[in-house]
Amino acid sequence: MRSPSPLLALRQARQQLLETGQCPAGIVDERLARSWHRSMAAGLAPTARVSPEHASTHHLRHVLASNHALLAHSRPVMEYVFDQVRQSQSVVVLADSAGMLMHTLGDPHFVDKAERVALTSGASWNESHRGTNAIGTALAERGAVEIHGSEHFLERNGFLTCAASPILSATGELSGILDISGDHRNGHAHTLGLVSTAARMIENRLMVATCKRNIRLHLHAHPEGIGSVAEGIIALSDDGWIVGANRVGLALLRLNTGDIGATLLERVLDVRLDDLLSRHKRRPLQAQQLRLHNGAIVFAQIQVDPAVLPAISYAAASPVATPAARPGVDALSALDTGDARWRSAADKARRIVAKPIPLLVQGESGVGKEMFARALHASGPRRDGPFVAINCGAIPESLIESELFGYVAGAFTGARKEGSPGRLREAHGGTLFLDEIGDMPLTMQTRLLRVLQERTVTPVGAGKAVAVDFALVCATHCKLAEAAANGKFRHDLYYRINGLTVTLPALRDRSDFAALTERLLSDLSPALALQVAPELLSRLAAYPWPGNLRQYASVLRTACAMLQDSEDTLDWAHMPDDLLEALQAVAPVAAASSPGPAVAAGTAPLGAQPAAMQVPQSLQALSQVAIQQTLEATRGNVSLAARQLGISRQTLYRKLAAAGV
Fold first, then answer.
1. 498 φ, ψ to 5°?
2. What is the maximal distance between C-alpha atoms in the chain?
């Protein structure tokens, strides 16, 4: 730990900074000089009284709720740390990633002084608000720092000595700051080491909590070190990618945070994931000796939730590991071709499939809402029960009551003599899918609401209700909240069916166009490996598809019918005439997706293109072109590029690594 700068030297350096804008070299620590410069740039003056930046009660409550996990895992560690410094007139502080204080534990004799400088929950200690201080400077420098006495930029904070360390997430992002502040006369040489160790304890607790569904490797150079605060922790996906790590784990494997999400375990260790899991099954508690590719030895113990081990073992046994692999195979997974928004909707729906929570699926006509609902039904515990689909906009209003609720014999003229159970009773034990529910007449909405509330159906002409039990999935292309506000849909029914709402993306907004094309072609012709010429695929991807998947599937079906017996590649000649002109008018785009056979080498009928403008001749090349163009457009901002591409940041890192970038 560095020694505090002499008081006289600090005053001289600060004076020169104020007069010339420069700190004299060699007098103060480089990080301290940088912090002073940032404080000046923020418009602060050492002698000025700053207006306290303090969150409102509502905003503080929101910050605390957003950081619930960090607070929960930090409090026990903070209590332990406070026990170590209890007699030193100090306060232990936890701040969020913006420098706002969220929780404090203070010595009663020091609390009054601390409150005078707003060292309390809700106050911001960002450098831009408080000048140089341990919390704000650790935040700016992303490293552990100690600020003693007059090293604080604001003179009113000169009575403090503070040591702070960042708390990092499993992916290397800043989660918060842990700080110990006290009277500068009672500063201790070991405070920075104590707060740094405590921050690592919190990081480890957070990582274990947030990576419960991952395989975790707990590492150390010595087997006895596993389980200590000095252990490394690596989180792995079920296909062997490193998706999380603490700082010690990265150091042991000679990696940095940029490698998270972009590195296979086999690239750093001489072991396969399935071998690790096999050893773990035989001796779950035994540390395994592993060798890095550079020859270094580490010891590792696997920890994995028993509930997810079967799915992980299945994926590890697969001969091909792909970044898009799902933790288990179900009907929704079979529809997943890589679009992030579609996958997010599926993941949310999976969480309620076994619970009595109704699902509302929104999306434009033709996006596959019923297909999504059927796959969800097949992925849940009611899969062996009936799936009853009703298009509320297609049933004549005069028949909708008898169609839905059924009727008894002789209930009305023309009724069947044996009566009818009705579609609602047919769904008993399974799933009821109400498509275009926004088109249901208001009178029927009232009766449906009663069914959903009482879970009984009274057929037309009957005096006795019949119990029904079904999972409810509704779908609509319109915004029901607006329809309810305009009196076109019952508010109470809207709240009843809107347990969880998911929105399926339009085809033009999906990032998995080529992979989706491959799946559709496989469904249309399972026996043939059909492909699409690259130029045609790029035009198809650029077309807006007002009818979405329904329209696109119809076009592909017609095109397949146009193929000669010797052909296996769809090209311009196979397109319907009404679509041909529209496709040739749109600008081609790269249809980024996972590699697959849907794209075939070929030429377009529109004439030769300059070499620099030629369309890449493989789907992998199309993907790389799209990634490169997006990175250039975002000036290398990986997070923004990933959002625009519709993939996760980790997936983008993997694709860049695969391309050798």
1. -95, 60
2. 105
Residue linked to tokens 């929104």: 362
| CA proximity to 134, closest of 108, 105, 106, 101 | 101
State the Cα torsion 624-626-630-631 to the nearest 10°. Answer: 10
> Which residues touch 430 (CB under 8 Å, ≥6 apart)?
377, 382, 385, 386, 387, 388, 470, 471
Amino acid in the structure at residue 605 = P
Determine the Cα–Cα distance for residues 175 and 71; give it in Å rounded to an integer. Answer: 11
pLDDT tens across 554-564, in order? 899 888 888 88
Q: Report the SS3 class of residue 298.
A: strand
Q: Are strands 471-476 and 359-362 parallel, antiparallel or unpaired?
A: parallel
- 576-582-584-587 Cα dihedral, nearest 10 degrees: -140
Give the C-alpha separation, 581 to 577, whole Å. 7
Strand, helix or coil for residue 600: coil
**Whole-angstrom distance, CA of residue 240 vs CA of residue 264:** 6
The b/e string for 590-621 (b: 16+ C-beta within 10 A; e otherwise) is: bbbbbbbebbbebebeeeeeeeeeebbbebbb
Q: What value, to the nearest 5°, has the Cα angle with vertex 9 and ends 7 and 12?
A: 110
In this predicted structure, the answer to whether residue 19 has a pLDDT above a threshold of 60 is yes
- How many C-beta atoms lie closer than 10 Å to residue 643's C-beta? 16
Q: Which residue has the higher pLDDT, 656 or 308?
A: 656
pTM for the full predicted model: 0.49
Neighbours of 291 (CB within 10 A): 12
Average pLDDT, stretch 617-628? 59
Q: What is the distance between the alpha carbons of residues 507 and 552, in angstroms, rounded to a whole number?
A: 9
Strands (E), 304-461: 359-362, 387-391, 431-435, 456-457
Other Cβ atoms less than 10 A from the Cβ of 370: the count is: 16
Residue 488, amino acid: K
What local confidence, expressed as pLDDT, does residue 55 receive? Answer: 81
Kindly report the backbone phi and psi dihedral angles of residue 50, in degrees, each rounded to the nearest multiple of 5, phi listed first.
-85, 145
Q: Determine the average pLDDT of the residues in 513-527.
A: 85
* Confidence label for 510 from pLDDT (cuts 50, 70 and 90): very high
Torsional sign, CA 626, 628, 632, 638? positive
* Residue 257: pLDDT band with limits 50, 70, 90: confident
User: What does the radius of gyration of the chain's CA atoms come to, in whole angstroms?
Assistant: 31
Facing residues of 168 across strands? 174
Over 50: is that where the pLDDT of 611 sits? no
Instruction: Report yes or no: 271 and 290 within 8 Å, Cβ to Cβ.
Output: yes
Which residue in this structure is represented by tokens 């992916």?
171
Backbone angles phi, psi at 142, to 5 degrees: 55, 40
Give the pLDDT of residue 658: 67
**Residue 274: how many other CB atoms lie within 10 Å:** 16
- Contact indicator for 114, 121 with CB cutoff of 8 Å: no
Which DSSP symbol is given to 574?
Answer: G
